[in-house]
Amino acid sequence: MKKIRLPLTIIMIVVAMFLDGCEGTDQQEVKSTLLNSIESPIVSQIKSLNTPEGILLGDLIEVGMGSCTYELYDPAEDGNTYVTISGNITYNGIPVVAKLQYKQINDSEYEFYTLVYNDLPRTELEVNEFFQYLYDSYNEQNKVEETNSTVSATEEIETSETVTTNSNSTGTAIVDDLGLMTSFVEMDSMVYEFGTKAQFDADFNGDSINDTLEFYFEQFWFNFTYIDGSSRTGYNSEVRLPRLIVDDNGDLMSGFDLVISIADLDQNGDFEFLLSGTDYAGTAAMCVYDEINGSMTYIGEIEGQFEFVILNDGEILAPIGTQGVGSSYIYQEGTLSENH
What we know:
alpha+beta
């Protein structure tokens, strides 16, 4: 990017104009105004920040927010340096001014600090929704430019960013693409692909209204976003992987594939979430999660080899080897236990 150098006399005139024109203007306000007047190195650094999806922050902002400005606070009251990006978006059908702030860590590094709409702080869930909105807007524009089509934004988001399943009853065995999960109860299952956000729409809390459960990898962790279908409120949380398939740092070991599934293990009319992993040698492990009192809760895990089989009463078979040896598990009333 070409750097713009303004003569010192011009800069002094600009500063003098601001000081003369606004009696209450201080040095900080002048810095902020100058930051918006030229393409400063700080603006370039912020725009060049890489997001977890591999897209430059500046590209996301340009597409997703209108009338953007960049303001520098150097130093702020706490002695740190912050850059605030302001722009117009529509939130729940209402136009608002969104401000996201980044904190300087060193000369070339910044980290996300906060997000506000109309000066009201947002929750972690709303922050994730905001960035997902930026990603969706960016991908939507790229799709339109590449295909010159009139596909709606909703259709494009579903095909490019989110893999969605809706639970359907079945009376036959369901086998996932890796052959790791075989179920004789109602089940949806998919192999998780990094870089995507997998979504299940099903009743997880037993109120006969579909809820939304999203599973994705972001910033070194696997995460849930759970949204209650009735209240439309929810939360984010990190996801615990089966111990057998992670290293000492809790990271997924090389060579393992993840299978994510939902099934009604306890036969009570709502779904549990199953997170399973396997490698080329046949090592297999599964974590069971269930929605309990408004929270997607870790229940326990199962280890086996090659595959897991869920019988029509919800019993889980975990074979060891190929000689008919293995263990059996049942999940009832919030407890996963071995079935002797």
